[in-house]
C-alpha cells in the first residue's frame, strides 16, 4: 500500500534479440507503470543488481533479482482510455473527500464535547486519525503514481509512502481490537475498574510504537531510482523475493488475521451475553435502558469491524493469488481488478463516520451541528442537549430532576407544623440508588443529598450510546 502503481503487462517485440539498452530506456520513458506485473518483466530484462519494484500490498515490496536474459523491445498492453481514467479519478477523489472530512468531524465531536470523552471514544479518535491520515497522505499519491508511472514526490516522501500505510492500518485495526477488549471487560466483568484516561493514552501510544516497528523495514529499504526519462520509487530487500514474501505474510497476519480473530472471539462472547437472555430478577426500567444502550454500542462496533474485514479481504486475496500464480499478472483485465480491490480497501477509511452517524444518536447530533449551515439540516433542542454535559428531566416518581454524573442535587424541605407531613415529604423526595440497577431506594435522613452516580435516563453506563 506504500507505492501502489497500476498493473502493467509487456510483450516482446519483433526485434528482441538485437535490441540494445536504449530499447528498455525508451520503453520505460513511454509511461509504463510499475506494478505487480512489472516485477515479472524486470526479472527477465534487467541485468544490473537487485531492483525491487513496489508491490501494492500494504507497501510490501517485490524484490526482483535480474538474471541475464536477452533484451527486448516492449509494448504496454494496458493503456486506459481517458473516460476510464476520469471515472477512477472520481471514485478515488470521493473516497479521499468523504474519509478526510468525516473523520475530522468525528475527532471534533469527541474532543470538543466533554460528554463524549470516554474510553471507547478515545480509541475512536485514534481510529479516525489513522484513517484520515492514510486517505489524505497516501491514497491520491498512490493513484497518481499508478496513472502517470512517474514518481514526482522525492526520495523522502518515497520513504514515507512505503512506511506510513502499514503504520496507519496497524493503528486502525488495533484501535478496534482495544475497543473490543474494553467492551468485553465492561460487560463480562463489570466490577473490575475501567481504563483511566492515562491508561488509555498509554495503550494508544503503545499501538503506534508497535506500528512504527512493524513498518520500519519499509522505510529502511525504500529507494528512488532515476532512469532515462523516469523516476521510480521502490523497496529493495537485501535477501530478495524470499524475504519479501516472509514480510508479506507477517504483515497480513498481524494487521488482518490476528486482530480479527481476537475481535471475533470477544464480540461473540459479548453478543451471547447481551442477546442470549436477561438476568433473572433485573427487570426494572433502568436495567433495560442500560442493556439496550450496551447492545447499540456493541452492534455499531461489530458493523465497523465487519466492514473493515470485507473491504480488505479482496485486496489480500489479490496479492496472494498473483504471488502464487504469476501468470495472472499478464491477464488482460488484471489492472482493473487491482484498481477495484485497491479502491475497496481505501474506501474502508470513509465508512466509519457514516456508521457512527446512522447508529449513534450523539454522533448524529454532532454531525448535525457540524453541518447546521446547510439549509436542509435542522438542529433540534434535543440534538443540542445530546452533547451537553448537564441535562435535567422531571420524573414521574417525584418532583426531583435526574442529572448527569458529577452534578450535585439538593433537596430542600419546607418547614411544617406536622411531623407526619415532613416525614411524608422526606420519603417522597428520597432518590433512587442506581447502584442497585435503580430497583431499590436509598434510605437517607439528611436534608441534602449529593451524588456522583445519578445519571440521566438518556445516559448509558458507558456514556457512548
UniProtKB/TrEMBL annotation:
Ranges of compositional bias, category Low complexity: 445-465
Disulphide-bridged cysteine pairs: 158-233
UniProt xrefs under InterPro entries: GPCR_Rhodpsn, GPCR_Rhodpsn_7TM, Neurokn_rcpt, NK3_rcpt
SUPFAM superfamilies assigned to the protein according to its UniProt record, in alphabetical order: Family A G protein-coupled receptor-like
Region (Disordered): 414-465
Membrane topology reported for the UniProt record: Multi-pass membrane protein
Gene3D superfamilies named in the record: Rhodopsin 7-helix transmembrane proteins
Annotated compartments: Cell membrane
Major location category of this protein: membrane
Keywords associated with the record: Cell membrane, Disulfide bond, G-protein coupled receptor, Glycoprotein, Lipoprotein, Membrane, Palmitate, Receptor, Transducer, Transmembrane, Transmembrane helix
Domain G-protein coupled receptors family 1 profile: 102-356
GO biological process, one term: positive regulation of flagellated sperm motility
GO cellular component, one term: plasma membrane
CDD domains (UniProt xref): 7tmA_NKR_NK3R (cd16003)
Ranges annotated as spanning the membrane: 85-111, 123-148, 160-181, 202-221, 247-276, 297-325, 337-359
GO MF term list: tachykinin receptor activity
Matches recorded under Pfam families: 7tm_1 (PF00001)
UniProt similarity note: Belongs to the G-protein coupled receptor 1 family.
Protein name, entry field: Neuromedin-K receptor
Species per Swiss-Prot/TrEMBL record: Rousettus aegyptiacus (Egyptian fruit bat)
